[in-house]
Amino acid sequence: MTGRRLRVLVVEDESMIAMLIEDSLCELGHEVAAIASRIQEALDIARRGQFDIAIVDINLDGEPSYPVADILVERNVPFIFATGYGSKGLDTTRYSNIPLLTKPFLDSELETALAQISKKV
Q1: Does 1 map to a domain?
Q2: Do the domain assignments include residue 66?
């Protein structure tokens, strides 16, 4: 575990994957603050939600989630990108310093990424 319990926003359009991420986070001792599956919902929660970090799927039902990432950057909230497309789906010019998890990922990979970004919390 990363040392303290984190409240996590999960932005994921596939409900089964969202549930798996939620289970993994709980097993690692963290709490899911909210799950957003559509871009507008994710934008609203990113703007107003109370959470420590976020895990953001790069592609939400065919729409890029970069506007959500931009809000998180603006709010100074650390986040991890998740994608099934690997690094080729990432805008590396803008987000080269953001950790990337390639789905499906192991709990140990999630734990490592959380430890990496939780230092910023």
Answers
A1: no
A2: yes
